[in-house]
Specification:
A hairpin with a 6-residue loop joins strand 3 (71-74) and strand 4. The protein has one domain (20-118): Glutaredoxin. It is of the alpha+beta class. Helices cover 38% and strands 16% of the residues.
Amino acid sequence: MDTVSQLEEIRDRVLSQKSGRILISMGVCGVAAGAKNTVQASREELDNRRLSGWAIVQTGCLGICDKEPLMIVEKPGESRVIYYGVNEERARQIVVNHIVNNFIVGHWVLPEDQSIYSY
């Protein structure tokens, strides 16, 4: 790799192969609220359902400590959805409902008036 454009080309090719991203807040509050288990359950459910192409990204603090663990689902061409209070069971259900069946679990979605939507 000799140029920035070659790196950008590789990045674009890798990103185009992804089905979407799951971001999980892993700041101090997120970890204390059980985000490590949320990450593990999400990975297991994706693997069990053979859903390749989904990236799980661990983020830092998102600033809403009382709503942790937070999970953000990003599907190509759709608005991001931010779920709160995502324990292991909720993580598995979000993968099944939102990712597999395209059904947003509305009662776990962070209300739009929360500050996280400004990110």
